[in-house]
Amino acid sequence: MRIVLDTITRPKSRTFFGADLTGIELRADDLDWSFGSGTPVSGHAQDLALALCGRRLPAGVLRGEQSRRFAQPPGGAGPADRTAGQAACRPGADPAAGTQQFRLAAALTR
Predict the structure, then answer these.
(1) What is the residue-wise DSSP string for the chain?
(2) In what order do the strands lie in the sheet with 34-36?
(3) Disulfide engineering: 38 pairs with which of 23, 60, 79, 83, CB 3.0-4.6 Å?
(4) Residue 12's domain spans which residues?
(5) Could you give the maximum distance between any two Cα atoms of the chain, in Å?
(6) How far is residue 6's CA from residue 71's CA, in Å, rounded to a whole number?
(7) What is the value of pTM for the model shown?
(8) 48 falls within a domain
(9) CATH no. for residue 55?
(10) Is 99 part of a structural domain of the chain?
(11) Residue 77, pLDDT above cutoff 90
């Protein structure tokens, strides 16, 4: 997961996905990884990766004063409405369902 995070925080990837990281530091709770400087936003590495790719997450998945930047709008899709790619990143999920995300990560490292 660290390789994916390091790849999607490169300037070219940040430009491609367009996530606004101004004034925040992303911190993974489940591995020793952080990126940026400013107000901390923390969560599981896989959720940070989704946010970096421009995905909106259910409120409360990420923590920190600025976590709302990456949250779904009120009335948005809930956890049950996550895409197969997001669900596949969860522990115990079917790894075949996340193939598209792994292809994306591989493409970004070329």
Answers:
(1) -HHHHHHHTSHHHHHHH----TTEEEEESSSS-EEESSEEEEE-HHHHHHHHTT--B-TTSSBSTTGGGGBPPTT---GGG--HHHHHTSTTS-GGGGHHHHHHHHHHH-
(2) 34-36, 24-28, 39-43
(3) 23
(4) 2-81
(5) 38
(6) 22
(7) 0.67
(8) yes
(9) 3.30.1050
(10) no
(11) no
Whether residue 32 is contained in a domain is answered as yes
Domain count along the chain: 1
Q: How far apart are CA 83 and CA 77, in angstroms?
A: 10
In the block, which residue shows the tokens 């990560």?
A: 105
In 3D, which of 26, 24, 8 has the Cα closest to residue 16?
8
Residue 96 lies in a domain: no
Q: Which two tokens stand for residue 27?
A: 């911190």
Which of the four pLDDT bands, split at 50, 70 and 90, describes residue 109? low
